Amino acid sequence: MASDRKIEVIEKALQHSYTYDEYKELIKNLLAEGKSTGHVQTEDLYNYSVLNERRMKRWDKTVTIDKAIIEKATQAKLNITWLVITEGWCGDAAHALPIIHKIAALNPGIELRLVLRDDNEDLMHLFLTNGAKSIPKLISYATDSKEVLATWGPRPSEATQLVEAYKAEHGSLDPVFKQELQMWYNRNKGKNIAEDLAKLI
Hints:
CATH architecture: 3-Layer(aba) Sandwich
CATH topology: Glutaredoxin
Helix content: 40-55%
Number of helices: 9
Pfam family, one: Thioredoxin_9
Radius of gyration: 16 Å
InterPro entries: Thioredoxin-like_sf (IPR036249)
Structural class: alpha+beta
Organism: Aquimarina brevivitae
Order of helices and strands: HHHHEHEHEEHHH
Distance between the termini: 18 Å
Low-confidence stretches: none
Number of strands: 4
Strand content: 5-15%
Protein name: Thioredoxin-like protein
Mean pLDDT: 96
Number of domains: 1
């Protein structure tokens, strides 16, 4: 069982969480007001959010899940929550969330809930990546035993390797790499994300 403090933070976050459709509606309504999610509002974050809404709509329509993963997901006996920390301006989240949603929808034993990073500081600090508040972050949480079973994110395993290799050579991620990463996501079509998530089932 997770520590009492961790359980308390997770349960509190779940009380103020969104379904996938509620999250998309929230983003749509904020964009109509010229805003992004998050406590900081800038033109760049708004523009990223506009782009990401388009990405999510595209993936919702076009992404396909491998038959073996569909079979595994539909046959598994589960009672878990996938709690995802995200924000509308996050490019990695825009690519990942439609695939996370499609896989969660395959099994009634997976409940998908989304929370915003900036509204859930305590939760985010429990699930840092190398000390950073990187998103998206998926927490696989056992509903009955109140146990954190696994985490995933902020990027699929192959993209993480690309990021680490680029950082090792160049020191940091620049706009050139970020464009290359978006191209990788488009070429991969969600396959690596789905493969990673299948390991959580």
